Amino acid sequence: MADLSTKYMGLELGNPVIVGSSGLTNSADKLKKCEEAGAGAVVLKSIFEEQITGEVSNLVVASGPSYWHSEGVRYVESYGRENAVEGYLNLIREAKNTVSIPVIASIHCVSAGAWTEFAERVEQAGADALELNIFVLPSDPKRDGRSHEQVYLDVAEAVKKDISIPVALKIGFLFSGLAHLARELCRRDIDALVLFNRFARFDFDLDEERLVPAPFTSSPDELLVPLRWISILSGQVDCDLAATTGVHDGAGVVKQILAGASAVQMCSALYQRGVGYVGEVLEEVAAWMDGHGHASISGMKGRMSQEESENPAAYERVQFMKATGTSS
Ligand SMILES: Cc1cc2nc3c(=O)[nH]c(=O)nc-3n(C[C@H](O)[C@H](O)[C@H](O)COP(=O)(O)O)c2cc1C
Question: Using N-to-C axis directions, what is the helix angle for 145-162 and 116-124, rounded to 10°?
Fold first, then answer.
């Protein structure tokens, strides 16, 4: 029987399937269900930087400036911050009292600002590791790519100097120098990169001529973007990689491990099929490994990466010359 255990950013996981940060991981009861389904670890729902710093400011703005004395504003701001913060720290403590699989806390941030002190409190509350979900939409034409990338590097440095639990960075792929940035992040002692976050998207409703949210779940073919990059990066960076986006079944998990991931996060498929589906996914992974003579996750990790390939150029091919006999 295949050994599904894996080591991910220093944590020992019984298997590589992690339930990703989402509404599936925002209470101790739900985390218990993840553990019962067989998940190797959980990433808690993120606390957002703006949730900590902006929640009450919005309330103040909505009520009108004359209503709030400046001292009152300061008090209410710090009260709101403590409420959000305490609620999250309690979630970590409850999680640790409820499940025995590793609990990874998550902070969504857009700067290396005041929130970084909160990382220490996450560690003190007992989280086994911290995942930072960073995204700065490069939509400001006055801001160049280097200054965007600097935010990621600053966050990595600020957090790593304050805490000793492992830190992962969950990033998107909208970078002109993705491989360089990944290597620089790992040089700042980041323990893992989680590739790639999938962001909220919008669509146009043509009947109403208005903006509407696009479906929030991924489709299985979205796995191909992280598959390429994990295949390319796994031989080039000195930190662990975890895959997220588009993993909907055991085959998806196997592919990402063969590419070089140490662990795989799932979210959309569990929204669609229920968290209990993790068990089925693990059975598929074990059956594939048995059928293909792979005894352990560590033994198969990276076996199909660019570094291990006899045809590395194929991993960087991006243009179509001919597809099914038709030029495209
Ligand atoms: C409803 C929902 C809520 C999510 N909330 C968070 C979050 O708070 N923090 C985060 O880092 N990712 C969040 N995500 C992103 C997921 O963790 C995951 O990276 C993404 O959905 C891609 O994986 P998938 O294809 O398996 O869904 C959320 C996703 C969904 C669908």
Answer: 40
Cα(242) to ligand 1 centroid in Å equals: 14
Ligand 1 atom at minimum distance from 246 CA: 25
> Which residue among 17, 18, 19, 21 is best mutated to probe the pocket of ligand 1, counting the most ligand atoms within 8 A of its Cβ?
21
Question: Does the structure show a pLDDT above 70 at 248?
Answer: yes
Name the residue at shortest CA distance from atom 4 of ligand 1. Answer: 22
Q: What confidence tens digit (pLDDT) does each residue in 178-216 have?
A: 999 999 999 999 999 999 999 889 999 999 999 999 999
Contact present, 170 and 220 (Cβ < 8 Å): no
Q: How far apart are CA 187 and CA 204, in angstroms?
A: 42
Closest ligand 1 atom to Cα of 170: 11
User: In terms of pLDDT, which residue wins out, 122 or 69?
Assistant: 122
Tokens describing residue 42 = 């959980």
Tell me the CA–centroid distance for residue 312 and ligand 1, in Å: 31
Report helix, strand or coil for 109: strand
Helix (H) or strand (E) holding 154, with range, is helix 145-162
Which tokens in the block code for residue 38?
């067989």
How many angstroms separate the CA atoms of 268 and 222, rounded?
11
**66 CA to middle of ligand 1, Å?**
39
List 295's β-bridge partners, or say none: none
pTM of structure? 0.91
Domains and CATH numbers, the chain: 6-327 (3.20.20.70)
Residue 46, token pair as written in the block: 């993120």
